[in-house]
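Lay summary. Proteins are chains of building blocks that fold into shapes, and those shapes determine what they do. In this project we predict the shape from the chain. Here is one chain we studied, written as its sequence of building blocks.
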Amino acid sequence: MRGSCGLALTEIGYDNTPPVLLTTQSTMQITIDLPEDIEQYLIREATNANVSPQTLILQVLRHLTQKPQETTSQWSDIILSHQGFPDFPAFESYRDELLLPGEPELF
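And here is the predicted shape, written in a compact code that computers can read:
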């Protein structure tokens, strides 16, 4: 694997303003040996997506390496903010009042 990443530290401004970090876009070349079945799958999927295999690989790598987006809850805010009912019995507080199950009749 060989590659380069460009970063330049440049002082910009007057009166002791802090330096600004500028990034430059660069590419890295990586060579991997793919088993034939994966190679054929990659070519087939790239053809189906109407992109080159390189573009498909870049799309997958970007997808896998990007920070996850903020997940949104499936529950609405009104449900999430519900505090319950003050006069509702506590969960299983009545369990001691239940009768034990009887013996099952087999015949």
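What the prediction tells us: Residues 1-16 have pLDDT under 50 and may be disordered.
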